[in-house]
Amino acid sequence: MAEPAVFLIHGLGGTQYDLGSMHKRLKNAGFVTYSLMLPGHGTTPQDLVGVTAEDWIEAVRQKYLEVMSLHEEVHVMGMCMGALLAIETVKRERHTKGKLIALVPPLFYDGWATPWYAFVRHILYPIPGVAARWKIEEGDPYGIKNEQLRAIVKAKFARGDNFHYNWFPLECVRQVDRLRAMVRKDLRKIVAPTLVIHAREDDLTSLSSANYVVQNINGKKGQTKARMVVLEDSYHMVCVDNDKEIVAKSVLEFIGANAAGSLGVPTADAGMTLQQMQELSAQACGDLETGDFAALYARGIPDFAWFQPGHNRTTGCHTGHKGLARLQQWAAASDAAPAIKFTTFGSASLNSGMVVTPAVLSHGALQSPGVLALSMRKGKLLEARWFPDDVEAEDTHFGGEPVQDGPSPAEKAFEQASVTSKTLQKAPDNDTLLALYSLYKQGSVGDCSGTRPGVMDVVGRAKFDAWMARKGAARDAAMSEYVALVTRLKQEDSA
Question: Rounded distance, CA 26 to CA 45, Å?
Answer without folding.
Answer: 30
